[in-house]
């Protein structure tokens, strides 16, 4: 049985990993601001701008799978530190790019910053007992506020010193944090058992991915995280185009979305610990369906042919209502992000890096696919709100699939005359991933998996 570390050790690990992830996320979304200036300089189309914004998300998403496996094998201290140093070098080299193809290649290197998420999840989860993992991972996940750091700060740096120097400032800060992390962070409590993981084959490490539950989690994360990243990148451009704002004002308003979508992840973790992640996921998806539906409505002028002549009126989402809706959407997406990751260390305690890496990869791919799709939809339809139309379809499908899966699982429980704890996607016992130990974070005093306890 793994000994629970002391509270100071837990807080030290949580604080270091959260701050490091915040800086990494700020770097990962840097093109949301400097991309606008680059687009003006090179005369890019919306599709080209969307691809430039999305390219770092692609690298950050795919790298999560391998970084998660490496963290399971070698521990988060060195993987996290080396990752930050490597990313800082790539960000610095980006400033030498002078053409669009060169910028795309540089953006691939910048995207490594996004892989920091799964490294931090695996590292942080190892320090906390199961009943506090949801809250701890919620606090760590609040590092998404790094997007708000970029939306707030980067516009002022951009105006003052240009996009190249802005990128160099980011590279310097991240490199310093990489060195600090290696020096101050400690090996996690699972370091002793890591030798066993190193002896396992790649196929053994990836065995949990045969379960449909993992891919349902991945779809949920595609929306709550992927769409969050996509909007964090796209909103400044959207606000400038729809409401005619300047880049500083657009960045500040975009931060009103990214801040709640990041900080309230802490609340989402606590709520998942206390009330169950199934309820939190329902709240998230229902609220998101409503918000994206309203945001999808383009400015429309109606003409009613009345008795005494035509009656004209217009329906549009004004800036104050838009800010309210986007704030609400960000709040509930933050709850959902925490709820999804609440389950991974519970269901798959020995495969947090592998399973979390796949879920994070699919979610991150949403951050790659969606900005690119937003740009394509703009060019094809000429309707700015088409981005929210697409998001509405995605979240409605996720809600429908989750509800169907939960109802199917409950029918199995009713037939067996059993009731299980309030976690999402509960499957019947024969479908539950078998834990390969009798005690530890994923089991209680009875040694039974969580969903077998009342």
* CATH H-level superfamily: MFS general substrate transporter like domains
Indicate the CATH topology.
Growth Hormone, Chain: A
Largest sheet: 2 strands, antiparallel
In helices, the fraction of residues equals over 70%
Helix vs. strand class: mainly alpha
Widest sheet: strand ordering: 1-2
Q: Overall mean pLDDT score? A: 81
- Approximate strand percentage: under 5%
The count of strands amounts to 2
Low-confidence stretches: 421-454
Helices, by number, come to 19
SSE arrangement, N to C: HHHHHHHHHHHHHHHEEHHHH
Distance, first to last CA: 23 Å
Shape: globular
Question: How are the secondary structure elements laid out?
Answer:
Blueprint: H1 7-28, H2 31-42, H3 46-74, H4 76-94, H5 100-110, H6 116-125, H7 130-141, H8 146-184, H9 194-199, H10 202-205, H11 212-243, H12 247-258, H13 260-263, H14 265-275, H15 277-295, E1 300-306, E2 309-315, H16 319-342, H17 344-347, H18 352-381, H19 386-416
Antiparallel strand pairs: 1-2
Helix pairs in contact: 1-6, 1-7, 1-8, 2-3, 2-8, 2-11, 3-4, 3-5, 3-6, 3-11, 3-18, 4-5, 4-6, 4-8, 6-7, 6-18, 7-14, 7-16, 8-12, 11-12, 11-16, 11-18, 11-19, 12-16, 14-15, 14-16, 15-16, 15-19
Pick out its properties.
454 residues, mainly alpha, Growth Hormone, Chain: A, two-stranded antiparallel sheet, 2 strands, globular, disordered C terminus, MFS, nitrate transmembrane transporter activity, transmembrane helix, nitrate assimilation
Summarize the structure.
With 454 residues, this protein is mainly alpha-helical. Helix content is 73%, strand content 3%.
